[in-house]
Each structure stands twice: as C-alpha cells, then as structure tokens.
C-alpha cells in the first residue's frame, strides 16, 4: 500500500516563476492537507481540502498561493510569482474519510523542497 | 488560540541514556495529541498518539501520557540509540470544523555512540 506521494522532491525556481507541487494521497484517503516548514521551524498548516472542495484555507497567504484537489488526479499547491521567502519544505498529508476518530491521524508525504533563486 | 510548546533543542545524549522531551499544549476542548519524528531529509512519521486524558501512547520504546491536569504530553524513552537521532515534533489536532494539526517547533535529538 503506497504511502502519500509528492513530486517533485526538489524544485528550483527563479524569482517570478510559478511553482506547482503535487500530492497523491494514500489509497482510499479523501482528505488532503498542506503544511509549510521554513528552515529550522515547525510545520505550519496551510490548507485542508476534500475532493473538489476547500474546507479550511486559513493558513494560506492571501496572494499568489492556491490549492486544488480535483475529482481525478493529485492535489496541486500552486505558487505564482515566487519570491525568496517562499523557499521551504512543503509537506502534504492525507487521512481517510469518516468520523473524527478515524481522521485524526494524518499520514505525511516526503515533502517537496522548494528553492527560489 | 490553540498552541503547542516544546522544549528547545538540541538535546545531545549518550547512547543508552534516558530521554525526556517536554511538550505542553493550550487548547479548547479535548484534542488528540501526537508525536511525530523527522529523520534528515525525510517527511514526518507518526511515532505515537493519545486521544484522551490518561491515555498512554507507545511505540519503538518511546512513550507519552496525555496529562489533562498539566496539559502535557512529554515524550520519554528509557535507553536511546544512535538511530533515534532526529527531530521530534509534538502536535495536537483541531477537530472542530477542520482537522488541522498545530505543531510545536520541534526538538532536535542527537545521540552519540
């Protein structure tokens, strides 16, 4: 049973370019979460999605960042016009549908390390 | 608001030493509590969890007890190994309307042979 998949693992962009980060949740999981980890810091929640719905985007910067989780295919975190401060590790996590008890454990992918030059 | 506070690292121990990493939390309601471990260059792996007061989570020799009276979830291991060197994150989950984790800042553990 494959775990959460993220690609690419490493992404280098120049200032002003776009970054697209992909996350495929574990099989059977319909909840996806994105977190950002700045160097030497803990993870900060960004957004929580279910299929075709954004449930909580309270951690997303107001500009340049967007996320989707379409009916088919992976979840995408998109950063437009990247700046140096966007350099970080971006982690995706997933959990299965169901009650709070079954969804409270999130399973993390290996992360995408974004470097903005 | 809800928050998690961890002891600052790095923590450096000799092999077979006793480990404690302190974690306290502030939350409304009764969150589930977690410890995750991150090895260099990798993502987070669930180490253990506890979902209600007085529950003890345990895994791979690590354990932590959910203490509601002290709002704590300290991580302990009786005898650490070099392979335990990693960053350890304490977290709680908000379940009212959303399921986002609140993480502590992480504690780096280095175990010397």
Protein described:
The complex is a heterodimer of chains A (117) and B (113). Chain A is mostly beta strands and 117 residues long. Chain A contains one helix and eleven strands; from the N terminus they run βββββββββαββ. Helices cover 3% and strands 48% of the residues of chain A. In chain A, strand 4 and strand 5 form a beta hairpin. The N and C termini of chain A lie far apart (37 Å). The model of chain A has no long low-confidence stretch (mean pLDDT 91). Chain B has 113 residues and is mainly β. In chain B, a hairpin with a 7-residue loop joins strand 10 and strand 11. The radius of gyration of chain B is 14 Å and the shape is globular. The N and C termini of chain B lie far apart (41 Å). The model of chain B has no long low-confidence stretch (mean pLDDT 92). The chains are: A mainly beta (117), B mainly beta (113). Chains A and B meet through strand 4, strand 5, strand 9, helix 1 and strand 10 of A and strand 5, strand 6 and strand 11 of B.
Could you give a quick summary of the protein structure above?
The complex is a heterodimer of chains A (117) and B (113). Chain A has 117 residues and is mainly beta. Chain A is 3% helix and 48% strand.
Shape of chain B: globular
Q: What class do helices, strands and sheet pairing of chain B give?
A: mainly beta
Strand runs of chain B, count: 12
Average per-residue pLDDT of chain A, rounded, comes to: 91
Order of helices and strands of chain B: EEEEEEEEEEEE
- Calculate the terminal CA-CA distance of chain A, rounded to whole Å: 37 Å
SS element count, helices of chain B:
0
Estimated radius of gyration of chain A: 14 Å
State the total count of DSSP E strands of chain A. Answer: 11
Largest sheet of chain B: 6 strands, mixed
- Low-confidence spans of chain A: none
Unreliable spans of chain B? none
Shape of chain A: globular
| Helix/strand class of chain A | mainly beta
**Helix share, percent of chain A:** under 10%
**Run of helices and strands of chain A:** EEEEEEEEEHEE
- State mean pLDDT of chain B (0 to 100 scale): 92
The end-to-end distance of chain B, rounded to whole angstroms, is 41 Å
Instruction: Report the biggest beta sheet of chain A as strand number plus sense, adding barrel if it closes.
Output: 7 strands, mixed
What is the strand content of chain B? over 45%
* Overall radius of gyration of chain B: 14 Å
């Amino acid at each position: 049973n494959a775990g959460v998949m993220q690609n690419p693992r490493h992404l280098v962009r120049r200032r002003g370019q776009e970054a697209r980060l992909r996350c495929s949740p574990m099989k059977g999981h319909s909840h996806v979460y994105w977190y950002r980890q700045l160097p030497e810091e803990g993870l900060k929640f960004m957004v929580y999605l279910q299929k075709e719905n954004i449930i909580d985007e309270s951690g997303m910067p107001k500009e340049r960042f967007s996320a989707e989780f379409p009916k088919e295919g992976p979840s995408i975190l998109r950063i437009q016009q990247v700046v140096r401060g966007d350099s970080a590790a971006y982690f995706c996590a997933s959990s299965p549908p169901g009650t709070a008890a079954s969804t409270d454990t999130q399973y993390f992918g290996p992360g995408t390390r974004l470097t903005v030059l | 608001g809800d928050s998690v506070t961890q002891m600052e690292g790095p923590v450096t121990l000799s092999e077979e030493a006793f480990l404690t990493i302190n974690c306290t939390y502030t939350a409304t309601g009764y969150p589930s509590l977690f410890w995750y471990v991150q090895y260099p260059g990798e993502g987070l792996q669930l180490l253990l969890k506890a979902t209600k007061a007085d529950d003890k989570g345990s895994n791979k020799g690590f354990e932590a007890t959910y203490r509601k009276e002290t709002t704590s979830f300290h991580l302990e291991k009786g005898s650490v190994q070099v392979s335990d060197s990693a960053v350890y994150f304490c977290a709680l989950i908000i379940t009212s309307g959303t399921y986002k984790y609140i993480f502590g800042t992480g504690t780096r553990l280095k175990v010397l042979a």
